[in-house]
Structure formats: structure tokens, C-alpha cells
Write a structure and sequence with these properties.
Blueprint: E1 2-4, H1 9-17, E2 25-28, E3 38-41, H2 50-63, E4 68-73, H3 89-114, E5 120-126, H4 139-161, E6 166-171, H5 178-184, H6 194-202, H7 209-220, E7 230-232
Parallel strand pairs: 1-2, 1-4, 2-3, 4-5, 5-6, 6-7
Helix pairs in contact: 1-7, 2-3, 3-4
Length: 236
């Protein structure tokens, strides 16, 4: 199994919680973490890295006889937090690429690589409740996650017609990770809803990423899960 952004946060927890016999591969700028046996070094906000990662996935597929191969695209960024037209343009562009474009391109490359594989094939894109709820200050992030959800719905229909891979988007909820620390540090002029997230932290309502990772792997074994589903893990 392959996890993007596996060097920290939910990604690292997903690597640690993977089924026992898994060959764990991390895709990130840093790493590999101790939980991974393999590592693909890449800055996914840089489109020039996408071909390398796609080719590496194809090489992994050819490397051994797989019973199951899962790609979890977890890498993402909230930065820059602030209003469109006011934040740094390069950082805003990187946000759009990482939260939307790379998910579609790597998803395509994964499906291309596993298309003829006689194995259980799963593509999981980590989404967010922000795909459905607009937050001032999160325009690129929210739009990127909404694009991920719609891509999964459309590609899920395609895989039902031919291909047969399971393609799903999973929103894990509000987690106790570095991203939440970043959110709580924002000024309300850049993120007017910041107090909500400070209150969640103060009330101890942030989910443990290790617990969420275990629940995500259980979800993939749920016979009610269908390709093309967009799932909020908090409702399962």
C-alpha cells in the first residue's frame, strides 16, 4: 500500500495501522518514517514530480504478485490561510495543485497501473467537510476538496462500467494533527471562523489520528462501501 503524505499526521498513522502483511510505501518530501518499508521522495505541489511518482507506482505494481494494492492520497495543505486576492500567489497556486490537481493526476496514473492487475485494487482520496461547507479564508482548500469528491463520483461510475477498482473519498473529521495547530494560530481577519476550531481543541473534541486510521482500514472492508462513494468517517 502507498500513502502520500505518510511522514506525519494521519498519513503516518495510516502506514502504522495498515493490514499486517502490507508492504508500506510513503510518498513525501521527507521521510521515510519508521512505519514505511519504501519511500518515494517527491514534492507533490510541484507538477514536475508527478511523472516520477506515477512511474514509481507502475514499477511497484510490476515488482511482485499483489493480492491487494491500495493508494491513499492523503497529502494536502491548508496554507496559505487568507482571502483570495490577498495571499501569496505562489503559495495559493501550490495549494490548488496539491489539494485538487495532483489527486486527479495520480488517481489516473494509479488506475492506469493497476488496470489489468488480478488483485484487490483500492484508491482512497482523503477529503474534508470543507468540500461541503464554505469557509472564508479557505477558498483553495475547500474548492480542491470539492473537486476531489466530484472526481471520485465520476470515476466511481466509470469503474463500475469497466475497471472494477474501488474508488472512494473519505473525510476523516477534525484530527489532533499539525494542521489543527496551524488553524488555531490564525488571526480572525484571515480566518473568521477560527474560534470554532479553538473551541473544539479546548473541549477535547479532536479525533486521535491513530484511531481514525484504524477506522479507515476497517471501512475499506465494509461490504456496503461502493466505488464512487464519498464518506464522512464520523457517520460510520
Amino acid at each position: 500500500m502507498i500513502v502520500t503524505g505518510g511522514s506525519a499526521g494521519l498519513g503516518r498513522s495510516l502506514l502504522a495501522a495498515a493490514p499486517a502483511a502490507s508492504h508500506r510505501v510513503d510518498v513525501s518530501r521527507s521521510g521515510p518514517p519508521d512505519e514505511a518499508e519504501g519511500h518515494i521522495r517527491a514534492d507533490l505541489a510541484d507538477p514536475s514530480s508527478w511523472r516520477l511518482v506515477g512511474d514509481s507506482i507502475k514499477d511497484l505494481v510490476r515488482d511482485r504478485p499483489w493480492d491487494r494494492i491500495t493508494l491513499v492520497h492523503n497529502a494536502g495543505t491548508l496554507e496559505p490561510v487568507g482571502f483570495a486576492g490577498e495571499v501569496d500567489t505562489d503559495a495559493y497556486t501550490a495549494n490548488v495543485l496539491l489539494n485538487s490537481a495532483v489527486a486527479q493526476v495520480l488517481g489516473h496514473r494509479y488506475l492506469e497501473a493497476v488496470r489489468s492487475l488480478d488483485a484487490r485494487r483500492e484508491l482512497v482520496l482523503v477529503t474534508s467537510g470543507a468540500a461541503r461547507t464554505a469557509y472564508a479564508g479557505w477558498s483553495a482548500y475547500s474548492a480542491g476538496k470539492a473537486a476531489v469528491d466530484q472526481w471520485v463520483r465520476a470515476v466511481g461510475q466509470e469503474q463500475q462500467l469497466r475497471g472494477g477498482a474501488t474508488v472512494v473519498a473519505v473525510a476523516p473529521g477534525v484530527l489532533a494533527t499539525g494542521m489543527q495547530e496551524l488553524i488555531r494560530a490564525q488571526d480572525d481577519t484571515d480566518f473568521p471562523r477560527v474560534q470554532r476550531f479553538r473551541d473544539l481543541h479546548a473541549d477535547d473534541e479532536l479525533a486521535d489520528p491513530d484511531d481514525v486510521a484504524r477506522r479507515l482500514w476497517v471501512l475499506l472492508d465494509d461490504p456496503k462501501l461502493g466505488t464512487g462513494d464519498v464518506v464522512d468517517l464520523r457517520s460510520r
